[in-house]
Design goal:
This protein is of the alpha/beta class and 279 residues long. The protein has 3 domains: 17-115, Rossmann fold (3-Layer(aba) Sandwich); 117-142 and 199-249, no CATH class; 150-185, no CATH class. It has 9 helices and 12 strands. The strands form 5 sheets. Strands 3-4-5 form a 3-stranded parallel sheet. A 3-stranded antiparallel sheet has the order 6-9-10, with no helix packed on it. Helix 2 (46-54) runs parallel beside helix 3, helix 3 (72-80) runs parallel beside helix 4 (90-107) and helix 4 packs parallel to helix 9 (188-197). The protein is flat, with a radius of gyration of 22 Å. The termini are far apart.
Length: 279
């Protein structure tokens, strides 16, 4: 209600373009909007619809969260408009990295990672001296089959294949889509993340099992200032970065580029490099 002493707060601007994955539901959506008295926006479907949503007027940031290589073309079109890309789609860089990275430079676009592990890398790197990164430790929950030996899983698959199928689509820690849950069960998802993060030989990237999923990708740094001590820094849901004897919060201001570890002294941490892990 509006009256003396009250303030009106405008709601969010109306949607101009809405992408619908289930194209067969477009008619139903329009009917429900009409019944609710809502003016229908432009509704787009299919691959062309994904591109239309990515290039819709008025946006300065595009979140790419489409599953698989289907996210590649919408991301390319958004880059051509110079938009900031918040990337939550691994396959965009894995399948199209040699195309995507030059395009970012050509069109003056910025890409930052929205996916949890790579967002942790990005956050931890804020304010860190150049060439100080020693190791990227990509954490993994282990997926649905982490407590099975290869022999046990093979036997169960022969005896109860339906049980294995159901278990593969049930993650022990997270409620996610079917594809990424299966990729986690087979550890393929972690393989994709290693490829996405790497810019140097793979021995600088160490997958590490953390059953509770409490840490997303610790980083090990080599800090050369006399007052600095070697330490491991991690980022889960915060933007905290340790760069000296104190801990401070920094906003994510730098454009993301794949981390570049350099040659360093022998590793001094635990076997997998993650203090809270269970190997």
């Amino acid at each position: 209600m509006h009256g003396p002493g009250t303030h009106s707060h405008p709601g969010p601007p109306p949607h101009q373009v809405v992408g619908l994955a289930a194209a067969e539901k477009e008619g139903e959506l329009r009917e429900r909007l009409k019944a609710a008295g809502v003016k229908a926006p432009e509704i787009v479907t299919g691959p062309d619809g994904q591109i239309a949503a990515a290039v819709a007027p008025g946006a300065d940031t595009v979140v790419t969260g489409v599953v698989g290589v289907a996210g590649l073309l919408p991301t390319i079109e958004a880059i051509k408009l110079g938009r900031t890309i918040a990337l939550a789609n691994k396959e965009t860089l894995i399948s199209g990295g040699p195309v995507i990275l030059p395009l970012l430079k050509k069109h003056g676009a910025v890409m930052t990672p929205a996916d949890s592990e790579h967002s942790a890398i990005f956050q931890c790197l804020q304010g860190v001296p150049p060439d100080s990164l020693r190791r990227v430790i990509l954490t993994a929950s282990g997926g649905a089959f982490r407590d099975f030996t290869a022999e046990e899983l093979l036997a169960l698959n022969k005896a109860e294949p339906e049980t294995v199928r159901k278990k593969a689509t049930t993650h022990p820690n997270w409620d996610m889509g079917a594809k990424i849950t299966v990729d986690s069960a087979t550890m393929m998802n972690k393989g994709l993340e290693v490829i996405e993060a790497r810019d140097e030989p793979l021995d600088r990237h160490r997958p590490c099992l953390t059953r509770l999923s409490s840490t997303h990708t610790p980083l090990a740094f080599r800090l050369t200032h006399p007052t600095h001590h070697r330490r491991t820094t991690s980022s889960a849901s915060t933007t905290t970065t340790s760069t000296s004897s104190s801990t401070r919060s920094r906003s994510s201001t730098r454009a993301w580029r794949p981390p570049t570890p350099r040659a360093s002294a022998s590793w001094a941490g635990p076997t997998c490099g993650c203090p809270s892990s269970t190997a």
